[in-house]
Amino acid sequence: MRSVFNKTLLELAKKDDRIFMVLADIGYGEIEPFAQAFPDRYFNVGVAEQNMTGIACGIAMEGNIPVTYSIANFPTLRCLEQIRNDVCYHNANVKIVIIGGGVAYGPLGISHHSTEDLAIMRALPNMVVLAPSDLAEASEATKAMIKYDGPIYYRCGYKKEPPIHEDSIDFKIGRAITVCDGTDAGVIYTGTIGYNAKLAVKELDKKGIKCRFISMHTVKPIDSEIIVKAAKETGAIITVEEHNMMGGLGGAVAEVLMDSNLTNIKCKRIALPDVNISKVGSQEWLREQYGMSPQGIADTIEKTVRQK
Amino acid sequence: MEYLRLATLIRAYAVRMTHRGKSGHVGSSLSMADLISVLYTKILRVNPSQPDWQERDRFILSKGHAAAGVYVALAEKGFFPKDWLDTYYQDNGRLSGHISHHVPGVEFSTGSLGHGLPVAAGMAINAKRKNKNYRIFALLSDGDCNEGSTWESIMFAAQHHLDNLIAILDYNKIQALGRSKDIIDLEPLTEKLKAFHWAVKEINGHNYQQIEDALTNVPLESSKPSFIIAHTIKGKGVSFFEDTVSCHYKYANEEELEKAYNELGVKI
Ligand SMILES: [Mg+2]
């Protein structure tokens, strides 16, 4: 997915000279084409994420579209106050891109996991939060992000994520995509964990459990309408995210249900527990450890639906 | 003399505004009043009738807690009506305690230290890449120079030869909890900055001729960013505030307000 992001950004930058890349010494093997094509609009500030964000904000204040880019938490948590005070308060047109959302860099350990980002980024006024789930969404999300005027957080995958959408997609910020329809439960996911959720939904389909499967690629502003409709029409909402249980997609969906007085339906959040992950293993192995293998997701959905 | 007139008004209003708001940081405005006066009288190319004029010089107050002092200069220049000054720190006021870009003439909001210079450096590198002639000024405090992010941008600015970037340090050698030398001693600061490939000049930050000379002759060296270390006295101009840590927190009471007016020779 990171290659798709970088290629799409490069194409956009050919047509729009406001696009800058501001890096903090991360991106080997991916960012070189941009650096070579646009040396005037490319800076590596060194390993200095606070300065990266401040520099990007200064460039944005002058009418440009700088993209900050690094691994996992580096461009968010290390420089959170710069994002809050400089970028969000000034509504500066900075795009913050991370590579490796969730536990994508599994065996590298917790310093390279991004598992609180959705909660923290969505708590910032003016911030839009995107988490594309496959390569088609990644490309469309990149285009939409550049077109949008204002701060955006973009949670990018790390490798060649398999496709979730079979047809071409209509990607709009804040408008979720229904991947397949169903009436037994609304299964709402965000990000690359969506593929495991898709396998789970397919498995359940064979058992006669028909899920409405929804990609919530924009965690903020969240598509309340599609959530309310799914809750009313299916009576069960299950969220799936590769993120801490607290404050991410599940929290955002719960807020919508509460504000809509839809508290009498079956609900379940599938997410990472609120722990510091010290287990060592690949992304897929870690997902399985925390109930997010296709089978784990299917079991939780089935159990929730049976309780209706 | 115009510099003295504006600096005195900045001081008198800063004491009055913080008195009315029962707010802190009066010493920080008094400390930089002469620097701000020269900047807004002579140095900064800005246009009060068109605050977002593209070719303006950019000025970022990184020590955002000294907002009151800048607000006075902006009001005097005509960026907004002078009666806004009395709304400082008040309910439904126009002017917040830390500097805000919602006020006409303010380039950037700050308040947490270490934010001003990185943003200024971003503006400076953009101006370089687009061949713009305006300059970018950032006014820093002792505390600002404790922040790692300030030093990140110091390294960045030198790396990219940003000679359109001018950092001014209001070096009153006092920070929130005491004397800077007892907390984080910045010395030898000139040598440090030179080692970081900046052009550096030390001046008396209360001497108008020295301030004017230094700021008129930027960049101090071509292809290097300029750092002007202005030696100042916290609370300058009001005897009972001068060189005290407490003037970071205290405001003048009724009696002290009158005393300050008398010392400054102004009544508002
Ligand atoms: Mg100081």
Topology:
The complex is a heterodimer of chains A (308) and B (268).
Chain A: H1 2-15, E1 19-23, H2 32-37, E2 42-44, H3 49-61, E3 65-71, H4 80-88, E4 95-99, H5 117-122, E5 128-130, H6 135-147, E6 152-156, E7 177-180, E8 185-189, H7 194-206, E9 211-215, E10 218-220, H8 224-234, E11 236-244, H9 249-259, E12 266-272, H10 283-289, H11 294-306
Helix pairs in contact in A: 1-6, 3-4, 7-11
Chain B: H1 2-21, H2 26-43, E1 58-61, H3 67-77, H4 116-129, E2 136-141, H5 148-159, E3 165-171, E4 174-175, E5 178-179, H6 180-183, H7 189-195, E6 199-204, H8 208-216, E7 226-231, H9 254-264
Parallel strand pairs in B: 1-2, 2-3, 3-7, 6-7
Antiparallel strand pairs in B: 4-5
The complex binds magnesium ion.
Residues 141-142, 172, 174-175, 234 of chain B line the site of magnesium ion (MG).
Protein name (chain A): Transketolase-like pyrimidine-binding domain-containing protein
Keywords (chain A): Thiamine pyrophosphate
Cofactor (chain A): thiamine diphosphate
Structure description:
The complex is a heterodimer of chains A (308) and B (268). In chain A, strand 1 (19-23), helix 2 and strand 2 (42-44) form a beta-alpha-beta unit. In chain A, helix 7 (194-206) packs across helix 11. Chain A is 38% helix and 20% strand. Chain A starts with a helix and ends with a helix. Chain A folds into two domains: 2-156, Rossmann fold; 177-306, Rossmann fold. Chain A is of the alpha/beta class and 308 residues long. Chain A has helices spanning 2-15, 32-37, 49-61, 80-88, 117-122, 135-147, 194-206, 224-234, 249-259, 283-289, 294-306, and strands at 19-23, 42-44, 65-71, 95-99, 128-130, 152-156, 177-180, 185-189, 211-215, 218-220, 236-244, 266-272. Chain B is α/β, with parallel strands linked by helices and 268 residues long. Chain B has a single domain (2-264), classed as Thiamin diphosphate (ThDP)-binding fold, Pyr/PP domains (Rossmann fold). Chain B is built from nine helices and seven strands. Chain B has helices spanning 2-21, 26-43, 67-77, 116-129, 148-159, 180-183, 189-195, 208-216, 254-264; strands at residues 58-61, 136-141, 165-171, 174-175, 178-179, 199-204, 226-231. In chain B, the strands form two sheets. A five-stranded parallel sheet of chain B has the order 1-2-3-7-6, with helices on both faces. A two-stranded antiparallel sheet of chain B has the order 4-5. In chain B, helix 5 (148-159) links the parallel strand 2 (136-141) and strand 3 (165-171). In chain B, helix 1 (2-21) packs antiparallel against helix 2, helix 2 (26-43) packs across helix 8 and helix 4 packs parallel to helix 5 (148-159). Bound molecules: magnesium ion. Magnesium ion binds next to strand 4 of chain B. Chain A: It comes from Candidatus Desantisbacteria bacterium CG1_02_38_46. Chain A: Its cofactor is thiamine diphosphate. Chain A: InterPro entries: PDH/Transketolase, THDP-binding, Transketo_C/PFOR_II, Transketolase-like_Pyr-bd, Transketolase_C. Chain A: Pfam families: Transket_pyr, Transketolase_C.
